[in-house]
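User: Hi! Is it possible to get a structure for several chains at once, not just one? Here's what I have:
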Amino acid sequence: MTKALIIGGGIAGPVTAVALQRAGIESVVYEAYRANTGTAGAFLTVAVNGLDALRALDLHRPVMDMGFSTRTIDLVSGTGKRLGVIPIGGVLPDGTTTHTIKRADLYRVLHEATQSRGIEVQHGKRLVEAEVLANGGVTACFEDGTRATGDLLIGADGIHSRTRRIIDPAAPDPRHLGLGNVGGFTRTAAVSMAPGAYVMTFGKRAFFGYVVHPSGETWWFANPPSAPTMRRRDLVAPTSDQWKARLIDLFADDAGPSVEIIRSTPELVGGTDQYDLPRVPRWYRGSMIIIGDAAHAASPSSGQGASMAIEDALVLAKCLRDLSEPAAAFTAFERLRRPRVERVVAFGARSSSNKAPGSVGRVIRDLLAPFFLKLIARQSQDWLFGYHVEWDDRVRLGERTR
Ligand SMILES: Cc1cc2nc3c(=O)[nH]c(=O)nc-3n(C[C@H](O)[C@H](O)[C@H](O)COP(=O)(O)OP(=O)(O)OC[C@H]3O[C@@H](n4cnc5c(N)ncnc54)[C@H](O)[C@@H]3O)c2cc1C
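Assistant: Yes, the chains can be modeled jointly so their relative placement is included. Here is the combined structure:
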């Protein structure tokens, strides 16, 4: 039986392991962290296309059960002017809608899925090197001095992937997007709206979003401007209180409840920078391949990175199931996935750049936004949200994505 070494136990890793098992391929997941952490980013949306892909593996229900339905985004300017409402993917024929879930809960659900299916996940295994063997197999070397050998190595190790560099030493670094991520969870009388509809504000100096959970808790995030100097590793990360003070200052002149939401939050989460990865020329070499953020990270503003990782997992498992040689499977995988993921990354970059225009750009954006939002509402978003992977259809060499 073919054995795959999966590097990374985030989203793409466990979903790939489950999909490979269904395809008759054994795998072990190697995760760098000692235990599931998954707090970075606090929460995320899993879009209808991601949930649709999870359905093929019977994983959509547990993921949806841990989250809540979030169907629309109400866009507002810093002055409090309503710019328009955009849907997040609509409703699938079976009633499925985009869901928002805490990152830690999503990671936990996916890990439970591997455990209940008897798939081994090893923690504390940080990949440092890998070599392709003369027989076509591959050996992974971990920071703790241990090794593992298999027939394939699948790098699902995220945006700062080590596997990407092992496959291609000239691989590009992620692109800094000039924005940060910070957020939290709170209960405040300043917010009194129904659950499930995001409100996002193009503030005068930073971007702010929040949504109410069915329990009444408010989940929020902010994207403050972030300069490259702010991400120097030798700088001490700001404390939660320092973040609060900075954000309260950034949103002080904006309409809406952002300042109260921030003030009432016990502990802020995150404080990371935003990156994307527009084009990685080489996704595979020999029996090693990268998927998910390691191969094509979309800006968080796309709301699609997790769903892309899930779709990748399903498509790669199908390719390995239907094409006997890894080289053929990897070629088919790239042909099926590259056009779509690069379109999504470009879409995310556009959304991200709207969040931090200068003062002139801000005025123009707020003036034109209602017009563009009406245009978006008329345009079909089917290319993004309507993507469906039919598990039972066989992959053929030369097949292209739609
Ligand atoms: C603030 C923020 C908000 C976001 N919001 C959304 C959203 O709303 N919707 C959405 O779809 N996407 C969102 N994203 C993007 C989404 O989180 C990613 O696209 C998604 O997590 C990618 O999944 P992945 O499995 O490829 O990588 P990851 O989830 O990053 O998992 C990679 C795993 O590999 C492990 N790892 C790394 N290096 C090694 C190594 N050398 N050896 C072993 N293991 C290693 C890591 O510890 C990690 O567990 C957001 C991202 C951020 C930062």
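The mean pLDDT is 92. The pocket of flavin-adenine dinucleotide is lined by residues 7-13, 30-33, 40-41, 44-45, 125-127, 156-158, 162, 181, 272, 292-294, 297, 300, 303-307, 309 (CB under 6 Å).

User: Great, thank you!
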